[in-house]
Amino acid sequence: MVSTCSIDRVLLDLELLLLNSFRYRHVPCRDRVRDTIKRMKFLKTFVMCARKSTQSNDLYSQSDNVAKKVSLPSFLSCIEDTFHKYEEDIHSLSLRSKAGKRLLKREIQKQIELLEQEIKLLKQEIIQIYFALASSRSLQSNSWMTDDELMEFIDFILQNLADLTNGYMHRKISESSIYAALTSQFQALEAKLTFFKSFIPFGKLRGTVDIPALLLAHFEVVALNTARLSYMCSFWEDEDLHNPEFCSMIYEQQQKITPVDFQVYEIYMDVLRATRSSKSLHDRMRDKQILNNFNDSLISRLWELLCCNSSFVDSMKDEIEILYAGLRFLRSILREQQEKMDEQNEKIGALLSEAGIIICSPSLNRVKEGEVSFSGSTEALDCYDMLSNTNIHIKHFKDQISGSSIIESLPSFHSLRAPEVSKTFSHMLSKGKMPIAHEVMVGLDDEVEKVIERLVSGTKQVEIVPIVGMAGLGKTTLAKKVYNDCSIIYNFQIRLWCTVSQKFDMESLLIQILCSNGKQSRMDEELKNLNEPELLHKLYQRLKTKRYLVFYDVWDIKVWNELRISFPDEKKGSRIIFTSRSSNVASQVEYGGKPHNLRPLSEKESFELLLKKVFGKEDCPQALHGLGMEIAKKCRGLPLALVVVAGVLATIDHHIWVWEEFAKSLTLTMVSGTDQCKNSLELSYEHLPCHLKACLLYFAAFREDEIIGAKNLMRLWIAEGFVEKIEGRRLEDIAEEYLMDLIGRNLVMVSENRSIGGVKTCYIHDLIFEFCKGEAKEKKFLQVLRGYDELSTFNEPPNLPRLSICSSEEDFIKSKLFCPYLGTLVFFDATPGRNKFKLLNISFLFCIYKHLKVLNLEGINLRLKELPTEVESLLCLRYLALTAWKMKFIPPSIANLSHLETFRLKSGEKISLPDSIWNMKKLRHVHVRRVCLPSNNNVAEILCTLHNLDTLSTLCLFRRGEENILRRIPNIRQLKIFNCWGKRRVCCDMSRLECLESLTLGGYNFSGSREHVGLSFPRNLKRLCLSNLGLSCRKMSLIEQLPNLEVLKLRQRSMDGQKWELMEGGFPKLRVLTLEDVEVVEWREVDPDSDDYFPCLQQLKLDRTYNLEMMPSCLGRIPTLETIKMNVCGDGVESLVWEIAEEQKNYGNENLKIIYGKY
């Protein structure tokens, strides 16, 4: 028997070399080593196969129409001798890399090139031998492999196919559509081989101890043809892969590889009909695994049938869907530990045999392979009868296992539907009765002082200060108060914040920490391509030489154990503060000081917090004091329970009898013990109007601890139909009232406010998240699936309204979900790291889920350059969100989505929307990083306008067609523009957009001045952000005169010139002014003695303003000024700011806040 020792040893050393290339950066040629390893694995598969075939007689290979006899033992010996020559040199490189020694690129290149030359010299003969072996098998009725050897061979081939799809080919193919097409073909081959691999042990389990030789020979032929095709693909170069004929050839070859051939179908049936022997060949758990594997293969093949378009399948689709659901039910049973396992395994095996006979039938396989349909034929009727009978048998088994009530169709969700909103809208809070939404902290001032004292004083060594307490006690609130305290900001050079959920991955966590100083958008590109060790090193370098403060909320000690190497101890007094529910976690942490055990609020403090959250600055009626104290007492000092209860009290009448009834319902048991917060949440939830219940439960669709954009959340609510339509009012305004109501009830928390009011981002407490997830599942409102176990065993009810999935790419594809009546699908990536879930093909989503109203795939990265035309089948779609960094093209068929309201696309490319976009009359929100709208001078075309379009970003405007485009979006309210006129000319004529309230205008980076064509802004503008505009300081008066402007952000190169002189009476309503990276040196008013400047200014933000030497003296006298925020400004600027603060103090404003750091 020929050995593969040389190949194995060379392969092992190459893998060690590759591993060390990640560990040590001084190992070059990583990609070439990786590719050589892949080809060595393909070669190893051949050697394994050929070794089993050495007894084959009269094997002939065909070359140039000449038959040549092949001696496999001699050929294998030649391969062994060939690679034996390179063992020593490759092993030496491996040892040196393991020792951390630097390797020269030419050393590795030389060895890799020699290996590749040898492998390529073997290529043609190996392909010919594979073909010869397959041809000889197809002519014989016996097998030269045992079933165990065949399964081992199949495992090798499956690994080769996985290598082809896992990046090997992707690095060679620039066109993602080609890569997607090839991958789908390789996945089809994987499915066929996986079926064989599961069929053999299943057949033996069911009583066929020896699989018939003819069937094994058929399996061998399929395996050999697959091995040959995959081996050929491993050698194709770039020019082959980009050839359009290449995919066609692969498809044709793949179609010829058929697992169920008509010649062997009857043998399949004999195996599947066999009666199981009385004694199991394996232990019970092994039997279950065999059944489960075969069931998975059947589900996969059935899923493919459901996804294909065929009149034959359509004629019996209901029965196929029932069978699909039945097999998924059996999968869930097989995953559980059941009594009477032997008996159940026997019954499940019999049911799977029945299902296998149907799914392997020639009729269905011809349909699946794309051949003609047979609707209405005798064959179709026979197949339908078999389906019906099998479904009856599975239903009978279900009834025995679960009881008949379990398998009845689950009712659709009615209690939270939008039509009922109108009945409950009268319960909406009036503005005068809105609960207190701002964060209130009571009774913890002494706790704050103690923690601050521990942070700013004591040892110079790095120290950890744990804050420990039960859920809902206010740990994070206390930490935030400490984190933002002025003395903390002053004492620490760098502050970082992160939150660790129960399920986390280290790469995402590290990125969150590195970006927590507010510069995420700038660091994103730098960080997203780093792996975990590089991110750990990045964090270490960032903190080194600095006095730092890091906050994080931690569930498990392993989080700290993995992170601690990134926190340097430079003896500068750095501190790490973390919150945890577990004292055990705190006690196990290295460098940990004594835990700060957070106490519950006293009865007096509880009462004070309750009143502040209910009444705000108003006084509580004296008659309610006693009842209020009684209610507060029952909350047992838990701030979360108190604020949730306060949220209910604020919405009911403030009469004694109403509060008495509420106090009676709030029994001591409802808010005591381990469930005190949960029960108070249930109470608050029951007091919500129906439409707010739906809005709250919708938070379960997101991930735990996720910070959610408020505007996007409200658009999702609108798309779902939660928001009532009221004539004369914008749906977005009504949705905002809903959000503010939930915030006022203390069920939703504000993460970040907008500069002039309103919520920018929000989140919910993790206890509220768990409550929403459980309640949403119980009410059949939303199902949340996390990981393969939940995905694979989930039995879809027929009218499931919403599904939120957090999964890896592999687990999602394996699960084969089929929910054709689903209304909402939200997807997140569960793969450790960022953007690891890269779905190649989403056409099947459009083919299956045709009733979707909401499709949110922003959480995964689609490897697509164009949106599939099948998107047109989603006729009910209202909300579409995608991430596809390489996408460039949107098909005209998108216009068939006549109900689409929101379209979001994250792409690194410039997207040109089709002409048909102008026909999408319901479109309201378009968010693409760079989007081009079609411009046409045709009069008929110009008449097509998007009257409902409300927000658009970021629109690329060109010199030609700019006027036509702006005319066709007349009611736009929020607009972001990237000016593509060129580096020297800018178009700024926005005057025709009378409804425009928010405008962001940018352009190409440049130096020097620019020509401004038709500079004009609409008078209703409230928010203006400029960058790279190069507007002369003399023309700033055009902006100063805007009567309704409330927010102005002047960023890099927004102005040209060093002297900005304010006109008197300018900025009459401006509340927030930001100067970021501007080059102004002198900033002053025309008349320093006049007070007619900035009459409403509240916030001044200065970011990287190094050159400013003069600021308007009026800033020292403005009575409305509340804060001045500085970030990375020069000493001169800081001096000017403190002069303003001193003058403000002289004028009686002692509350002006000067804040340092990123805001």
From TrEMBL:
It is found in: Cytoplasm. Residues 849-1133 form the Disease resistance R13L4/SHOC-2-like LRR domain. Residues 445-619 form the NB-ARC domain. It comes from the Eukaryota. Residues 98-125, 327-354 form a coiled coil. Pfam families: LRR_14, NB-ARC, NB-LRR, WHD_DRP. Residues 702-771 form the Disease resistance protein winged helix domain. PANTHER family: AAA+ ATPASE DOMAIN-CONTAINING PROTEIN (PTHR23155:SF1152), DISEASE RESISTANCE PROTEIN RP (PTHR23155). Confers resistance to late blight (Phytophthora infestans) races carrying the avirulence gene Avr1. Resistance proteins guard the plant against pathogens that contain an appropriate avirulence protein via an indirect interaction with this avirulence protein. That triggers a defense system including the hypersensitive response, which restricts the pathogen growth. This is Late blight resistance protein homolog R1A-3. It comes from Coffea arabica (Arabian coffee).
